[in-house]
Amino acid sequence: MEMEEMNQMSRRRKSRRKDTMEEGREEGETMPIEKVFAGKQVPTWREQLTFRALVVAAFLSVMFNFIVMKLSLTTGIIPSLNIAAGLLGFFFVKLWTKALEMTGCLRQPFTRQENTVIQTCVVASSGIAFSGGFGSYLFGMSGRIAKQATEANDAQNIKDPTLGWMIGFLFIVSFIGLFSLVPLRKIMIIDYKLIYPSGTATAFLINGFHTPQGAKLAKKQVKTLGTFFTFSFLWRFFQWFYSPNDRCGFQAFPSLGLKAYDNTFYFDFSAAYVGVGMICPYIVNISILFGAILSWGIMWPLIGKKEGSWYRANLESSDLHGLQGYRVFIAIALILGDGLYNFIKVLSRIIFSFISTAQSKGSRSTLPISDDDRPNTTTPPISFNDRRRTEFFMKDQIPNVVAFGGYVAIAAISIVSLPRIFHQLKWYYVLIAYIFAPVLAFCNAYGCGLTDWSLASAYGKLAILIIGAWAGASNGGVIAGLAACGVMMSIVSTASDLMQDFKTGYLTLASPRSMFVSQIIGTAMGCVIAPCVFWLFYIAFGDLGMPGSEYPAPYASIYRGIAILGVDGFSSLPKHCLTFCYIFFAAAVVVNLVRDFSGKKVARFIPLPMAMAIPFYIGAYFAIDMCVGSLILFLWEMKNKAQADAFGPAVASGLICGDGIYTLPQSVLAVAKVKAPICMKFLSRQINDKVDAFLIGANLS
User: Fold this and answer.
1) pLDDT, tens only, 389-442
2) Contact 57, 232 (CB under 8 A)
3) b/e string for 449-470 if b means 16 or more Cβ within 10 A?
4) pTM for this model (two decimals)
5) d(C-alpha 511, C-alpha 509), whole Å
6) What residue intervals traverse the membrane (predicted)?
């Protein structure tokens, strides 16, 4: 989960630099982008919410929910899929309008505002697969995750997922964040002029689609995406024939040798994570590889030799009192150290920004009156783009009574309903959360506007520790903490997402009202689609969430581990594990300090602690996949950088989408108990000789 936020931040910064240069060149050398569209009528907010847009959004929502769910349950690394959502939305509606145009039934042309509605709806829906906690806090409540530890695994601290309560829980908590910051939209977007790099990059992408030159490029990008989508899907289907279980097939190919394979160093031929590696910045992939080498290459083999001394021998591989405990809790220490540092960093930046804004407003030179009380003629003129965008952004207002009334009404429903779903979560825990939530949502949205970094998971972990410790283990503190995490994460995450969408709408002249409604519709879709997709995974794969399985759901164990720490303290840790946790927590803070104060030239070579933490628990195999993706992109950029910049994201998105959507037929086959006909396995020469001798002896007898 945290990796999704970090990947999006790094990638969007890169996109922001490119998009800002392109937009500046466009405005400086030709004409402002809004003058290009000046001759086109801007549809009303109701006309932007077309039936075809919602149909396409619903179809893409199902697809993207499968993709995000698969990534959440494997590694938790979820790259930004905004480009894929924008491209596919453009493509499908273009097909729709082309067909209607041929029959003479086309009534309304496809506009950039409608494209923005589709993208907003799809991202809001698939975002529930992330903020809903199916790979983290929600699945962490289950018995499958609880039985991996001996602490807090009683009935009070377990709640197995069922479709009914998951859908109900998401409908209760997922909408309130949309109402928390609506009254501040003008302040955040127009007055403070916050950048929101992801929203800005998405708007530039959509604006480009709807220019004549951009439409041609978009068609080529969609064709490329479709080609690699088909390849990825068929390649994954081909692999199925050789993989009746997790120890067979291409994913068990010891490409770096059998000893390396035993320590999870191998290439598993995953097209999805090759694509993820192409999207993620190089430093992210190198950081993951460095973390894999440090943990699985050095630390775990050495700690494994202490079996019987530091921890009891012959424990289950998933037992947190054994080697698994070091993996989980040291990863938690790295994540908490990195999260705390960045929380303080973003918060201090917000405070300094407010101080700077207050000082500038107090200076007379910033007012439209000169020192001698005459009109100030040196006020910088407002550009045509800003003037037109502000005009349309202020045109369709969302009444404040709707925002305040909606927040209070949903909060009241939640305070009454959530304790009925989780009896461990008392009504006053929920009340306290909703009192502080708007402040935290504002901090998160403001920080996201400055840095593109959402700290939703950091606020969620804070809720786990506070509410979990408050409730205590005997009163179901683990479930109370994890449920409170869901409440807090949903509020702060959806609030910052809405501000990103307002920024996108501001730059594409999409109405704030249509953005708000499309967010509500997309969220409602996600509250139904995401639990259904998770439920399909849950019933299809009996080893879901187990270490070493195809879907280990690493963050489910990590979030439950944080909850156990909150209610039990450090008594649950194996020997010397707490010392390692202190060391790695401090190391995460120090590495971040060095990155921030060493200058950009040096900082780009310093690994990211958050990225390093992921393979500590999961293994090194996906780091190999992602570095292969980085290598492909690097060689492509060396050969033709312009082509790589234009088509690299489309290739990566196609690889991710094809592999991700394959999980639908894979789940159906698993539910139907259909097994692959061939097991492709790799043995050492000595073991192979023994197997051959055994088979020969069996045949002779």
Assistant:
1) 999 988 888 888 999 999 999 999 999 999 999 999 999 999 999 998 888 888
2) no
3) bbbbbbbbbbbbbbbbbbbbbb
4) 0.76
5) 6
6) 49-71, 77-96, 117-139, 163-184, 282-303, 323-344, 398-421, 427-446, 520-541, 577-594, 614-636
